[in-house]
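Throughout our pipeline, every protein is held as a single compact record rather than as scattered files. The record that follows is passed on verbatim for readers who wish to inspect the format.
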Amino acid sequence: MRVLFTGGAGKAGRHAVQYLVEQGHRVLNLDLQLLEMEGVDNRVADISNAGQVYDVMTSYAGFDELDPGTGVPAFDAVVHFAAVPRILLKPDNECFRVNTLGTYNVIDAAVKFGVRKIIFASSETSYGVCFADGERKPDYIPIDEEHPTVPEDSYAMSKVVNEVTARSFQRRSGFDIYGIRINNVIEPHEYAQDFPAYMADPDMRRRNIFAYIDARDLGHLVDRCLAVNGLGYEVFNASNDNHSVGLTTSEIIARYYDGVPQKADMAEDETFYSNKKAKRLLGFTPRHDWRHYL
């Protein structure tokens, strides 16, 4: 597929782009920074500027596309990851502005130019646990996509707004628009770098619901979103199958989730950030268990 990928130079984006390229997709990266990766074209543009987004949406990816003499090819899909990636980087209102306006511009342009597959990055933070002031427990465990999304910070608010925006565009267009609620992204080198500390102090993982998503498995999930058609509007949790700490499910419940309603039976190493919907509807099969590397 010919894919416009926004935010491909970011932590999550570059691994997803690499995975897509390895699967044979043609990728044009729209970002404020260049992604130096073989087989990837770049366009420096600002997602909060509608004119720039519209221009890139109708542009050549590279010089080779001039050769046929048949005009600019259309994109088969748009994957939208570009964003201010968390709170405490920019003023809260700027984080909210860039993320919401940028997502509106990208989806609006994609729909108006007939791109019938749109995938956008939402976030684990939408459930209100990650960036809460103090400790906030889930309404129930494991957290699935039906869990309420009522956060209190500007970043997570922007992600909830983006989901509403995407749902509205899907209703108007009938296109496939899928949101991925991405959990804490772990790059391969971070297992040895960070996970020993998580084993020693599980408290460090409370805000991430003791879950994680390997960056390569996230790429696989994006590719599955590209491959599966006809779902309309859907959101999917993105996580690996197990906890990111050395405790069992029962031990985590006893220490952190005592009294929290349990919606379903869980295995002793099963993630509290349920990925069952992505497995069922997309054929998502995460492969990178931290125990393989640590």
